Amino acid sequence: MEITSGGATQTATIVPDSSREQVTLTVPKPLVAGPAKAHILYSGRLNDQMRGFYLSTENGRKYAVTQFEATDARRAYPSFDEPAYKATFDITAVIPNSDVAISNGGIASDAPGPGPDEHTVTFTTTAKMSSYLVALAIGEFKCLEGSSDGIPIRVCGTPEKYELGRFALDAARHVMHFYNQYFTIKYPYGKLDFVGVPDFSAGAMENTACIISREQLLFADPERSNPLQLRHIAQAAVAHEMAHQWFGDLVTMQWWNDAWLNEGFATWMSYKPIEQWKPEWNLEQDEVLATSRAMARDSLRSVHPILVQVETPAQIEEIFDSIIYSKASAMLHMVEGYTGPEVFRNGVNAYLKKHAYSNATSQDFWKAIAGVSEKPVDRILSSFVTQPGVPLVTVHYGCSSGVCSPGPCKNEQLSLSQRRYTYDRKLLNGESSELWAIPVCAKGNSQECTLLDKRNGDLWLVPPQLLPSQSRAPAVSLVCPPAYGNAGAHGYYRTAVSSDILGQQYFRELAASAETALTPPERIMFLNDVWAAVRVDRQDIGDFLSLAEAMRNDRSRAVMQLLNTELRYIGDYLLTDADQAQYRAWLRGLLDPVMDDIGWNPAPNDNEELRSLRGDLLLTLGITAEDPRAISESRTIAQEDLQGKSVDATLVTPALRVAARNGDAGLFEAITARLKSPRSPDDYLRHLVAITDFADPALIQRVLEFGLSPQVRNQDALYLYGRTPADFGVLGNPAARKLAWNFIREHWQQVETKVTRADLGFVVEATGAFCDPTSRDQVRAFFTEHPAAERAAQDAIEQIDYCSDLKTQQESKLASWLGRKGKAVPGD
Ligand SMILES: [Zn+2]
Description:
Elements: E1 2-5, E2 8-11, E3 13-17, E4 22-26, E5 36-39, E6 52-58, E7 61-67, H1 73-76, E8 86-87, E9 92-96, E10 100-103, E11 107-112, E12 118-123, E13 129-130, E14 136-139, E15 142-148, E16 151-157, H2 166-182, E17 192-197, E18 204-205, E19 210-214, H3 227-244, E20 251-253, H4 260-277, H5 283-298, H6 313-318, H7 322-339, H8 341-355, E21 358-360, H9 362-373, H10 377-386, E22 390-397, E23 413-421, H11 425-428, E24 438-443, E25 447-452, E26 456-460, E27 494-497, H12 501-517, H13 520-535, H14 541-550, H15 557-573, H16 580-598, H17 608-624, H18 628-642, H19 649-661, H20 665-676, H21 681-690, H22 697-708, H23 718-721, H24 737-746, H25 748-754, H26 757-766, H27 773-785, H28 790-823
Parallel strand pairs: 16-17, 17-19, 20-21, 22-27
Antiparallel strand pairs: 1-2, 1-5, 3-4, 6-7, 7-14, 8-13, 9-12, 10-14, 11-12, 15-16, 18-19, 22-23, 23-26, 24-25
Helix pairs in contact: 2-3, 3-4, 4-7, 5-7, 5-13, 7-8, 7-10, 8-9, 9-10, 12-14, 13-14, 13-15, 15-17, 16-17, 17-18, 17-19, 18-19, 19-21, 20-21, 22-24, 26-28, 27-28
Bound molecules: zinc ion.
């Protein structure tokens, strides 16, 4: 270890500080001011932790792979391992003749030797970049090759899987062209490689020009894969990681507290090229679903703001959550709507140009957008970035004259008020200290917007030509459609109607006409608003179920997806034993006719949206409604799938899950046998997920033990013990929940070692699947004694509290609503 400065070379001593993951280099004499050169000879060992430079294995082959974000480059090589220290990198790999090496740079030379069975690969010098973006993957990889706008693009993987990369390659070619058009800076790195590796802890990683990912996020057979999985590959993996080449790689956040500048931007951008490529996927609806999930997390009392103070590696690890990704993305979407897309795009390009090959902060971004737009975008962004929580905009329907009563046009004027929404009713009903600058758009007679930056504000919805010039009061009486306060669903806020008679009247009218008055994204947001009001006892659960009835003819896949999720949640948590049968009967009455209408079995010309809708309905009917036909259809589909017959990909997962819920040891063995020889990475995953749905305690015990065995890769243990955005996993299964929690506690050390560090938070968070105070106390006591993923533990405890609060407030209302329904004429 030598340091040279001012022409003199000195040997340094090294003192490591493992708690800070740093070493201090000390030389005997002071260094001369100015540049110095440190020469460090070091060696390392490939670890088995999927962090740093690690070993991945498959079919007896060995792969050496890197994963450095956020603070693991230092595990592989000494560096100033913080994002603000950018450098160029020269990498050379000496590897066995049977292997290839893929890295950030192109190949400058590839020569035989130095050993008899070795070759030496030297890469071109990289662009100036942060240490966490360095990548190297070595092993027996094969690649598909393509190009776009003259940039070579490859998708590489193990010899068995790489050919399933065709779909990802097509997506990448489209995305490359789109981004080259959108950004004024063309893709700057000369080539782009995607590498799917057998073991990977995160989803995918945006290393400069060398994106490394899980196989499930890169390889799929378009003929046999679930369309939702293909979308996920195109948008959440390919387009997201490629957007990072600009947001993150070219311009990098100064420090991790601004991680949203990477993740929020890459998420926001990722929808655009795929919406253009595959308009029939309706991705704009999935974007609103993602926003509604972010809002759910943002409704917790202790949630962090987008801009979050972090210092230690453990704190940095914990912030990569839906707030940084989806909330930040939704906020950008809202501001883009406020400035107009072209102005926003100019602002984004100005920001990228100014900070290219360098670093930036939140302030740098909002200054750039405010400068270009000449609108108070800085106030909007700073209010959303620095304050936690989701705003609640309450709409009071005004009257132009006299006493308010339902009838002809009384909603010309909307009085708006804002406060923070939270599931914590004490906090919700107290003073709100937060104040946002919210671009609010409402639609009714017409669509109008305002910037709500005070506690209260007004919005007029009468077409301007009807307003007399001297006065803002409308002179003409109109028959108004009921107004909705989040037009286009572009706003990152919840809306509620006032609790007075007029407000409730308009709520009922809007609910009854939602299908025609609102677009699918607006219907998703409206459902989300109503469910949020139910959760804090501001609407009755009967209002939500009546809304579900009003929407029974809705055939939008994403709208029904949200509705189905909430209907399953109600079935799982809010029913007493006495209500179970009535709820199931009601649910069958609601959804069976929908299935009859769209057909229980796929027809040759069904589009992907309809096929996905069918799959979701099958799950709700089979699991929550215990519908005999759904169960028997599911059994048939599961058997055909397990016999190797080709089955519609949208039905396999729900059918396997429903069959498992009602299944025996024979089925368990058939599914686990399939796990040994899956057809593709996503085929593996859907069979793995299905085994968590068994109800038989003996089988659940086998699932829990299986998860810790070497048969399940560490990267996949999450799908069993955790609860990722969908509601699967042993803790999501009411029949398995208690048993699973006992097992996890008893085997905590093994579970903690098994799941990756990045996934540990998801497992801890999944314990929030309980809904009673006793379990809450157990969860709290356990994670106090075994500290792990502190934020996730806090979230879990809050989730349990709010669920049991919801149960207490709505249980009897639900029972009486179901009772009334039970007596009513069917179909009423
Ligand atoms: Zn990302």
